[in-house]
Specification:
The structure is a homodimer.
Chain A: H1 4-11, H2 15-22, H3 31-44, H4 50-57, E1 62-67, H5 73-89, E2 92-97, H6 102-114, E3 119-122, H7 129-137, E4 142-145, E5 156-159, H8 161-174, E6 180-184, H9 191-206, E7 216-218, H10 225-234, E8 242-245, H11 248-260, E9 270-274, E10 288-291, H12 294-310, E11 319-322, E12 325-327
Parallel strand pairs in A: 1-2, 1-3, 3-4, 4-5, 5-11, 6-7, 6-8, 8-9, 9-10
Antiparallel strand pairs in A: 10-12
Chain A binds a DNA duplex through helix 2 and helix 4.
Chain lengths: ~325, ~325
DNA sequence: TTGAAAGCGCTAACAC
DNA sequence: GTGTTAGCGCTTTCAA
């Protein structure tokens, strides 16, 4: 691979001049010099070493994203949006995944930072508060995606999860349901989970329905736990006539759980899931779900980060809240009398 | 952010010594010096600038992947495997997507190369032969993933697509089907598509079934074209009693197409799809598909690339061929008499 | 309009 | 054991 010196030598000029054409600073350059350099570059198939440029310019034109769980198809869709916006803006993208582990999240952040990426999109585990505070201190640009933390004043792209849960719970209530179960992954510090439970409770409260804690199931993260949880819930004396599932994986496990309990969907029990995909309408039964604008989340968070990186002086952080949408299909029916 | 000079100054030593402890070359260093440096590093919260290290060491410990189409959930699964193996081996990962465009693929490759990533995993559009040849010339390490090209002697991770198509076509024939339709995206130079058509034809041939070109539908890439293609095929005088779909997106479109044609799956027409996911068994009907080891493809291609990068002298390129598996569910029935 | 020289943050050969 | 020095490939003053 040829370098700037090779080009300079071949063109018979100094490397400063070559650098000028690399960076498009021709204004005061003779056409002759310029052409000589251009020709030499072509001949050597030269293209500048981005690493060296970055070291000097102190910017890599690359951002990093840290996902909590790359397994969830929801994040693939988000990633697609991130990727697209990066491409459009001429940025590179480094991807990593924390697997919901605080420690790995921390390492990933540190590694990416050392690689000098210009900014970070973080779908945080919700912990690591100290680290985030120190990033803020250093004025290192980052945005939170989908999940916020206790730390206020961070640019964030988020979906209205209270609304999503409220809408779907209300929809079930409107159909006549009173015993509505909800399945969640452990709340920990994760705002979407907390908010979805909150929205569920709010809807019940507004409608004067007592909260039954047996109908709130916290499933273990990641291992088919939703199937068992569903069966347990359906074995309850106060068996729910409807279930609200708060995660893509859980949606599938609830469907399996209901079948295993020997019950029929939606005749015996109604179901609303979370997140929407092209295949959801083709499930048996076609699932009513809360749809989140995943792709848009990716695009918006990237745009927000890039904007933040570009502005020299601190501007007031922005919280972009997107709205979920209830996709009504045929997995809900009024309860049997 | 502190740099190596700050540490050296604070510890009262030269930066060579600091560099030594960064790189773990303590053997001949006094404990005293070492401790002074360690303390200074901690105090300044120092961590080395990877960019500068890379420029000097001529290796970035980062690889790049170029996907043809990040939209397909299949690639999310592959990416998961790539990500995991990168993590395990201490490599960073840069992700880009060509959207099946030759020109964008080329730009992506060039950009990543300029960013000095140590190697590339390429799920190629199948064109860009000249570029690949020049990479080979420069001894720049890359592996092909899922698709191969005319260029021989490239490390490649691939799935046996002929077998996948043959297995599923044979399965349909065994059920008594003779009129079997196949849906494909444009073959262009894409080996999996070519091979799947080949496998389909081979199975027919072995069983003495004449190929009917009306039953081979090439759908336009990416726009619901599969729905129309299915309807057209089902309107044929020699209407197929079974359909073989060769892509995740097409699977869904065929299901929709059959419904729109007023036909029932699997009673009126059997269907085998390609690629498997947790939600496939929950579709209506539970879909029989050819399952590809997507995650494993990601892991294996990464491992192969890293191995290739590490060996100094050229070793004979390796083709890793993985096997697909037919996941039999209930979307196929013997044809009506 | 162009070139010389310093320096981005680090490593490594060499000298002591 | 430790420091000096040159240099990775580039950009950017500054001077000519």
């Amino acid at each position: 691979m040829a370098n700037i010196n090779d080009v300079a030598k071949l063109a018979g000029v100094s490397k400063s001049s070559v650098s000028r054409v690399i960076n498009g600073n021709f204004e005061h350059m003779s056409d002759n010099t310029k052409n000589k350099i251009l020709r030499a570059m072509k001949e050597l198939e030269y293209s500048p070493n981005t690493l060296a440029q970055s070291l000097k310019k102190k910017t890599t034109k690359t951002i990093g994203i840290i996902l909590s769980d790359i397994s969830n198809p929801f994040w693939s869709e988000v990633l697609k949006g991130v990727q697209k916006e990066c491409m459009r803006m001429g940025y590179g993208l480094m991807v990593s995944s924390s697997g919901e582990k605080e420690q790995i999240e921390k390492e990933n952040i540190l590694t990416l930072r050392n690689k000098q990426v210009d900014g970070l999109i973080i779908n945080t585990t919700g912990k690591n508060t100290d680290l985030f505070n120190s990033l803020i201190n250093e004025k290192y640009p980052f945005v939170f995606l989908d999940r916020s933390t206790d730390i206020s004043n961070i640019d964030t792209v988020i979906v209205n999860n209270i609304l999503g849960a409220k809408m779907s719970t209300q929809y079930l209530i409107d159909q006549g349901h009173r015993n509505i179960g909800i399945l969640l992954y452990p709340l920990e510090n994760k705002s979407p989970r907390i908010d979805r439970l909150e929205g569920y409770k709010e809807a019940l409260k507004i409608n004067g329905i007592q909260i039954n804690h047996d109908l709130i199931k916290i499933c273990e993260d990641q291992n088919g736990s939703g199937v068992e949880a569903t069966k347990e819930m359906l074995a309850l004396p106060t068996r729910p006539t409807a279930i609200f599932s708060t995660n893509t994986i859980l949606n599938l496990e609830v469907i399996m759980g209901v079948k295993k309990a020997g019950l029929k969907l939606p005749e015996d029990v109604s179901l609303i899931g979370y997140d929407d995909y092209p295949w959801v309408p083709l499930l048996d039964p076609p699932l009513t779900t809360v749809s989140q604008p995943a792709f848009e989340m990716g695009v918006k968070s990237t745009a927000l980060l890039i904007k933040k990186m570009k502005q020299k002086k601190q501007i007031k952080p922005k919280i972009i809240q997107l709205e979920p949408e209830l996709m009504i299909r045929s997995s809900c029916l009024p309860p049997l009398k």
